[in-house]
Write a structure and sequence with these properties.
The complex is a heterodimer of chains A (114) and B (114). With 114 residues, chain A is mostly beta strands. In chain A, 0% of the residues lie in helices and 53% in strands. Chain A has strands at residues 4-5, 10-14, 19-25, 32-38, 45-51, 56-59, 62-67, 72-77, 86-93, 103-104, 108-113. In chain A, the strands form 2 sheets. In chain A, strands 2, 4, 5, 9, 10 and 11 form a 6-stranded mixed sheet that branches. Chain B is built from no helices and 11 strands. In chain B, β4 (31-38) and β5 form a beta hairpin. With 114 residues, chain B is mainly beta.
Chain lengths: 114, 114
């Protein structure tokens, strides 16, 4: 039972345009959400997060939106750059899963086309 | 400040062999984690240690054992390796608070079981 879902395995976007990565979750008790970025042969690195008491968090080119009623979050990257090509994982914590563990989605491979 | 380090980077085993994956962190974090990453499956939690002296099973613990040697080190042992354990293994650490769990990942160990 996949608690955190990323339904798009891959996404291609032209350089300079907006990249939108989506994530859905099923457990309404999750109260903290994170995005991680992963390059080949490296470990994931933290990108941006959002608490369930907010609906938007912005950090430079990266913005995460949370729609609690739809159990949906999205990561917007504007403008997209070649260095953004990576696999992006969303993750969630809280509720009966506890705050000390993260539940990850399956990832979306983003390719930025020069 | 090395962050999270893992050894070895690569390993090839024959079915039935045993090995221990080592992980160390220098961020004075209380919590440490072992994940495996498989194509299309995202990151799945094998075991975690919320604090020194405690360990708990994650989503996929069968075939593995762990030891939290001290606050810095958390090892993962495969007693009798199977081809299904071919994967990339990541160690992570965090200092989780009431609603925040940014985990820091090591570079990974790529394990092949023949």
């Amino acid at each position: 039972d996949q608690q955190v879902k990323q339904n798009s395995p891959s996404l291609s976007v032209q350089e300079g345009r907006i990249s939108i990565l989506n994530c859905d979750y099923t457990n309404s008790m999750f109260d903290y959400f994170l995005w991680y970025k992963k390059y080949p042969a490296e470990g994931p690195t933290f990108l941006i997060s959002i608490s369930s008491i907010k609906d938007k968090n912005e950090d430079g080119r990266f913005t995460v939106f949370l729609n609690k009623s739809a159990k949906h979050l999205s990561l917007h990257i504007v403008p997209s750059q070649p260095g953004d090509s990576a696999v992006y994982f969303c993750a969630a914590s809280g509720g009966n899963f506890g705050n000390e563990k993260l539940t990850f989605g399956t990832g979306t491979r983003l390719t930025i086309i020069p | 400040n090395a962050g999270v380090t893992q050894t070895p980077k690569f390993q090839v085993l024959k079915t039935g062999q045993s090995m221990t994956l080592q992980c160390a962190q220098d961020m004075n974090h209380n919590s440490m984690y072992w994940y495996r990453q498989d194509p299309g499956m995202g990151l799945r939690l094998i075991y975690y240690s919320a604090s020194e002296g405690t360990t708990d099973k994650g989503e996929v613990p069968n075939g593995y054992n762990v030891s939290r040697l001290n606050k810095r080190e958390f090892s993962l042992r495969l007693e009798s390796a199977a081809p299904s354990q071919t994967s990339v293994y990541f160690c992570a650490s965090s200092e989780w608070a009431s609603s925040y769990n940014e985990q820091f990942f090591g570079p990974g160990t790529r394990l092949t079981v023949l």
